């Protein structure tokens, strides 16, 4: 190599780089970020960001950690890994399960809301769209409140409702004409109003939302004595003894902004929900899945919501055919969940002490989770709906999960003390990302009696 070239390179290497070069900026001290300024607000002015300079984004690892924390809070339980699920369980378990319901109580039900349907043709109009009979034996509109439902054209449940007749000049000061109050799921009232307006066409009917300050829904109960004689309808309220199951109490519509004055303790909607679950009564479209549940699977036939002798209504054809010619193989039943290392419960009891940082509670189970046989594969035995604490509701296959015998069939050989156990599993991926808990279904005494009476009645009709 020529000496001139060698000396030139040596000179180039020995020369300091220019002050404005990229090498100088890259090797200089890291400039402060917005996180540095926030972490050390007392730092000298030289380390703070200039006012005219745009703040830089946090480092990538800090952004990733923040994103993961937000995603873990937003994702449902069945999409979380086991470590994230344990974190979520600890967060849920920080609030204890609701206490055991009191023997008597009065609870406001903000999950239910009212809709007014009034006008000279209100009775005729409702008669054509709901499952119960609006008219009495004398052919005149009923004056008592009742339980009913609305179906779609394929016979699936759209709304479960209570219907309260209103008369002009009655206890509701804002009722200027004859009509009805429809009580429905508060989250579905707007959809119910749109559905009624769609069916209304030229019927002389007025549909109006009733705000909570005009009328509110309450539930009262007393396990020691019946409430019906003491809770009478008056100038400020409408009363209905809940027909869905024995012991549920009385439904009260308070026609002002005050609470009903009754000689029972104040309670909560959570207590009412627990009492409802223990009796196997579903309510609202979180439990009677909209446009999926059949009314007979939701036990609406044994709760007095369906009149099988009335005239045509929306969804009648499939309902009547299933009643007289089909077999209802699935029904909503109360269930108890328990750990995989525990024995199956022998009774349907609510345990207020079931929650702990390491345990799963019924409200953590995703809706729609399939019920399967423990340690076996095969057909699903049911589907989880909703729960609280250690109890909940599930749509169960009767011949698999219970000892009920369907008409024309034999009892399932798998049910019994030595039969199959059932499990709820959810989560995606490998075994480490799944959660599971055992579940057992129970048939309440009132439902068993009603289904037995139905079976005898159906047998008599077949042999006639």
UniProtKB/TrEMBL annotation:
Pfam families: Beta-barrel_CAF17_C. The keyword Transit peptide applies. GO terms for biological process: iron-sulfur cluster assembly. Residues 1-69 are annotated as: Disordered. The keyword Lyase does not apply. Residues 329-448 form the CAF17 C-terminal domain. GO terms for cellular component: mitochondrial matrix. It is found in: Mitochondrion matrix. It comes from the Eukaryota. Keywords: Mitochondrion, Transit peptide. Belongs to the GcvT family. CAF17/IBA57 subfamily. This is Iron-sulfur cluster assembly factor IBA57 homolog, mitochondrial. It comes from Metarhizium album (strain ARSEF 1941).
